[in-house]
Design goal:
The protein is α/β, with parallel strands linked by helices and 465 residues long. The chain folds into 3 domains: 80-281, Type I PLP-dependent aspartate aminotransferase-like (Major domain) (Aspartate Aminotransferase, domain 2); 287-424, Aspartate Aminotransferase, domain 1; 425-441 and 450-465, no CATH class. It is built from 15 helices and 14 strands. The longest helix is centred in the middle third of the chain and has 42 residues, at 269-310. Bound molecules: pyridoxal-5'-phosphate. Pyridoxal-5'-phosphate is lined by residues 95-97, 122, 124, 126-127, 175, 177-178, 204, 206-207, 233. The record marks 74 as: May act as a substrate filter by repelling compounds with a negatively charged alpha-carboxylate.
């Protein structure tokens, strides 16, 4: 309503109400004005009504929404197709895997003869598939065990570079955020290697944006050597539905070329999701969530540690992974039965525990024509089975409490029944009675049907491919 409408409204309702409405409207409009003026993420979050008011105003600028619009001919139905800020990043309406594909294809344009991607192994299928989808050839460099932790085989990488020739390599694809016991890749070493051999360096930072430590690693690596671009998921970091990724980097030219290579128009939904969420949280709200996540990580480690001690297990020492942790499951399998670790996964899943992974270390998986021993463990010789848990943004204390409580009970239950397992209940059918696929599995190679898995434990997990 404009000023005249408000004055007219005073004929209908008491003017005090009208005046209050006018000042509330002014307050909201001021927030919007300041935002447009300063182009800065407000520290304090906005209420939904302000966000809606703003979105409505923006939508009014879309010619498709002009009242007199005659919809003849081709028209761009969007009013925003990407967010660009001075730090050099933009949001694409594709998840992380596809965004990595876009980056690799753009990098490849400058290196026509190259076809290899040097990849520090991480057992996350979409990550590996992105190399294959880009039509490139992965060279798998398996991480090395250092104590409990899996670290980048920098030496192995250098050997591959020498063997293959740097001109034949499209890029090195490293990963920061990953399931323990794998640590973040040694970004500084890789970045140095890349600048020495003049090879582009692409970083998969899927859920690393929520960790100050991982972001710091990227920054330091870029100072010491070469980091061309890094990609992070919007849903894993910014509490929005799946559908977007942020491609960032230190080379403006490259970022522009990547964004130009996106063919055609795009859905604005992922951008609006992020835009609305950031306005709603405010930078203070987001910083709080980041702080809380870090506290939750400590809490989860403490609580899981207690369960580990109680059941004769231990937390693996993986100090270079600030998000995920692992607890051994050494005493779960008996000499005659190696399926108990998988069964544990099924039992937890049936008790509504999601996101953990029970890793046997003996599973084999084929992805396209590539064979992975010890699939799930990022390594072909995992020393023992284990379970992982992660403290992701938005995690609450009650999530941790429920998880450790249920894990405690399930571990106790498995120990009581130390004899051979007979499938007497749903949960046992889930893992030992049926063919199982996906991550919480029992060692079978299970490439076909991985998304139509019959295992109760894996049905949800296959969604997280
Ligand atoms: C989630 C994830 C991916 C794939 O992300 P999508 O957004 O599903 O494409 C790749 N790598 C890692 C390490 C991930 O955690």
């Amino acid at each position: 309503m404009n000023a005249q409408s408000f004055t007219l409204a005073e004929r209908l309702i008491p003017s005090t109400y009208v005046q209050q409405a006018v000042s509330a409207k002014k307050w909201r409009e001021n927030l919007i004005k300041t935002f447009i003026e300063q182009r800065k993420w407000p520290e304090e979050g906005w209420d939904d009504a302000t966000i809606e008011l703003f979105l409505n105003d923006l939508a009014h600028m879309d010619c498709n929404n002009f009242p007199e619009n005659s919809g003849v001919g081709e028209r761009e139905a969007r009013f925003a197709s990407g967010v660009k800020n001075s730090a050099g990043c933009f949001l694409v309406p594709m998840a992380t895997g596809m965004s990595l594909v876009l980056c690799m294809l753009t990098i490849k344009q400058d290196r026509p003869g190259a076809k290899f991607v040097l990849w520090s192994r991480i057992d996350q299928k979409s990550c590996f598939k992105s190399i294959l989808t880009a039509g490139l050839q992965p060279i798998i460099v398996e991480p090395v065990l250092s104590g409990d932790e899996l670290r980048t085989d920098v030496h192995g990488m250098e050997t591959q570079i020498t063997t293959l020739g740097s001109n034949n390599i499209v890029c090195v694809l490293s990963t920061t955020s990953c399931f323990a016991p794998r640590a973040s890749d040694s970004l500084e070493h890789i970045a140095t290697l890349c600048s020495r051999h003049n090879i582009p360096h692409l970083v998969n930072n899927a859920y690393g944006l929520q960790s100050a430590r991982l972001m710091h690693l990227i920054q330091e690596a870029a100072k010491k050597g070469r980091v061309d671009a890094f990609v992070q998921s919007t849903d894993k970091n910014l509490l929005v539905p799946v559908g977007g990724a942020i491609i960032s980097g230190f080379d403006k030219g490259l970022l522009e070329r990547i964004s130009r290579n996106y063919p055609g128009r795009a859905s604005a939904s992922p951008v609006i999701d992020v835009f609305v969420t950031l306005l709603s949280l405010g930078s203070n709200g987001y910083k709080n969530l980041i702080y809380e996540r870090k506290e939750m990580f400590k809490y989860l480690k403490e609580e899981l540690g207690k369960i580990a001690t109680k059941h004769g297990e231990r937390i693996l020492d993986t100090r270079n992974n600030p998000i995920s942790m692992a607890m051994t499951l050494s005493s779960v399998n008996s000499a005659t039965d190696s399926k108990r670790v998988s069964l544990l996964g099924s039992m937890l899943f049936l008790r509504d525990v999601t996101g953990t992974r029970c890793i046997t270390g003996i599973e084999h998986k084929d992805v396209a024509s590539y064979q992975f021993d010890g699939w799930g463990a990022h390594h072909s010789n995992a020393p023992c089975p284990y379970i992982t848990a992660a403290a992701g943004i938005g995690m609450k204390k009650s999530d941790v409490d429920l998880f450790v409580h249920r894990l405690d009970k399930v571990l106790a239950k498995l120990k009581i029944r130390s004899g051979p397992l007979t499938p007497t209940s749903v949960e046992e059918l889930g893992s030992s009675g049926r063919r199982s696929t996906g991550r919480v599995v029992n060692g079978e190679s299970s490439e076909q049907g991985s998304s139509a898995g019959t295992s109760l434990a894996s049905s949800k997990d296959s969604l997280r491919k």
